[in-house]
Design goal:
Order of helices and strands: HHHEHEHEHHEHEHHEEEHEHEHH
Helix content: 40-55%
Strand order of the largest sheet: 4-3-2-1-10
Distance between the termini: 4 Å
Number of helices: 14
Length: 350
C-alpha cells in the first residue's frame, strides 16, 4: 500500500482528495531505491517506527506536538489509533513538510466492522460460510478505507482451544481447517483484488505464532509445544493467510520454547519468509520488542532492538526501541545498515 502512496508524494497533500494509480513493480522498486539512497540513517529508522494517537480528552484521538515534530523530521512511518481529521492533518504534514514527503500508513483495529458492526469473528466463523465472512470484511474495509485508514490489525487467526483465554473472541475457534478457511476469507475481504484500491485495507495476520496456546488460558503466558503440534495446528491458518496474499504479519507476545516471537529468527525469517515465501511486512505487537527485556533475553532496549530487527521485525509498534537505539547500534557496528535497508524496503513497498 505504501508503494502506491509513494506515487502521490508530489501531489497528495491530503487524504482521499484525488484518485491515484499504483506504480508498476519496477517503477516502485526504482522509487524505493532512490529514496534509500537519499535518506539519512535517522530517516531510515523512522520509517520502521509506529506510534499511537493520544486520547488526551474525550473524543477522537489527537497527535501531540512532539509527534507532529517527528512527522516533519521524517522520523515516523506509521500511526495506529488515529482517526477522523487527525489523519488528514498528519498526512498533510508528512507529504508537504517532511524533507522527502514519504506518506504515513495509518492502522487501526478493524476487527468486526468499522462504522457498521458485525458479530465477533468467533460468531461469524460459526456460520461455516467463508463467502459471507469475506463480504463482511469487504464492507468493513470499504468504510474504514474511505475514512483514510490503510491497514487493519486483523485477521486474528490464532487457534484457541482453551475457553479461558479471552482473545478467543477474535479468532475462529479450535479447528485448524475452519481457521485456515476463515483466515483466507478475511484476508481477501479486507484487501479485495487490489491493494491500490481506495476501498482496500492491508490485512495483518496475527499473532504469529501460537498465541492461542498460552498455558492455563492466561494472556501473555508461556507456550510450550512440540514443533509437530506447532506446525500442524497453530501455523496452518497463518500459512493460509500467506497464500491468500496477506500484506503483513504481527508477531505475538508469547515465547515458544523459551524464545519470544519478537526475537525468533527461526519463526519470522526461516519459516515465514524462507519456507513460505512471505515478502510482506512484519510489525511487532504493542511494545513486544521492548518486552524482550522482561522476557529475559535482552539486557536493555539496545539489545531488544538488535534482536527484533535481526529476527525479522520490520516495524516497532510503540516500544521506542528502534527509535531510540537502532541508529546507535548501526553506527557501532552491531547491526548492518543492509538489515535496516531491507526492513525499510518492505515498509516502503507496503
Amino acid at each position: 500500500m505504501k508503494r502506491f502512496l509513494l506515487l502521490a508524494v508530489a501531489s497528495f497533500a491530503v487524504v482521499q482528495t484525488a484518485p491515484s494509480q499504483p506504480l508498476p513493480a519496477s517503477a516502485a522498486s526504482s522509487r524505493i531505491e532512490s529514496l534509500i539512497a537519499r535518506m539519512t540513517l535517522e530517516e531510515k529508522v523512522g520509517q520502521l517506527v509506529q506510534y499511537t494517537g493520544r486520547f488526551d480528552s474525550p473524543g477522537a484521538p489527537v497527535l501531540s506536538e512532539a509527534q507532529r515534530t517527528l512527522i516533519r523530521q521524517g522520523a515516523v512511518g506509521s500511526f495506529l489509533n488515529v482517526d477522523g481529521s487527525a489523519i488528514r492533518d498528519a498526512q498533510t504534514l508528512a507529504v508537504t513538510k517532511s524533507r522527502l514527503g514519504i506518506p504515513l500508513v495509518f492502522g487501526l483495529d478493524v476487527i468486526h466492522g468499522y462504522r457498521t458492526t458485525f458479530p465477533i469473528p468467533l460468531a461469524t466463523a460459526a456460520t461455516w460460510n467463508p463467502s459471507l465472512v469475506e463480504r463482511t470484511e469487504r464492507a468493513a474495509a470499504t468504510e474504514a478505507a474511505l475514512m483514510g485508514i490503510h491497514w487493519t490489525f486483523a485477521p486474528m487467526v490464532d487457534i484457541a482451544r482453551d475457553p479461558r483465554w479471552g482473545r478467543i473472541a477474535e479468532g475462529s475457534g479450535e479447528d485448524v481447517y475452519l481457521g485456515s478457511i476463515m483466515a483466507a476469507a478475511r484476508v481477501r475481504g479486507f484487501q479485495g483484488s487490489d491493494l491500490a484500491s481506495k476501498t482496500a485495507l492491508a490485512a495483518c495476520a496475527k499473532h504469529f505464532a501460537a498465541y492461542g496456546a498460552a498455558e492455563g488460558g492466561r494472556d501473555y503466558n508461556t507456550v510450550d509445544i512440540s514443533e509437530r503440534t506447532l506446525r500442524e495446528v497453530y501455523l496452518e491458518p497463518f500459512r493460509a493467510a500467506v497464500n491468500a496474499g496477506a500484506a503483513s504479519f504481527m508477531c505475538s507476545f508469547n515465547e515458544i520454547a523459551g524464545t519470544p516471537s519478537s526475537g525468533n529468527r527461526w519463526l519470522l525469517t526461516d519459516v515465514l519468509r524462507g519456507e513460505w515465501g512471505f515478502s510482506g511486512m512484519v510489525v511487532s505487537d504493542w511494545n513486544s520488542v521492548g518486552e524482550l527485556v522482561p522476557h529475559g533475553v535482552a539486557a536493555d532496549s539496545v539489545e531488544a532492538a538488535i534482536l527484533g530487527i535481526t529476527a525479522g521485525v520490520d516495524m516497532d509498534m510503540e516500544a521506542n526501541a528502534y527509535a531510540f537505539t537502532l541508529a546507535y547500534s548501526v553506527r557501532n557496528g552491531r547491526v548492518p545498515v543492509a538489515v535496516v535497508d531491507e526492513a525499510m524496503r518492505r515498509v516502503l513497498r507496503m
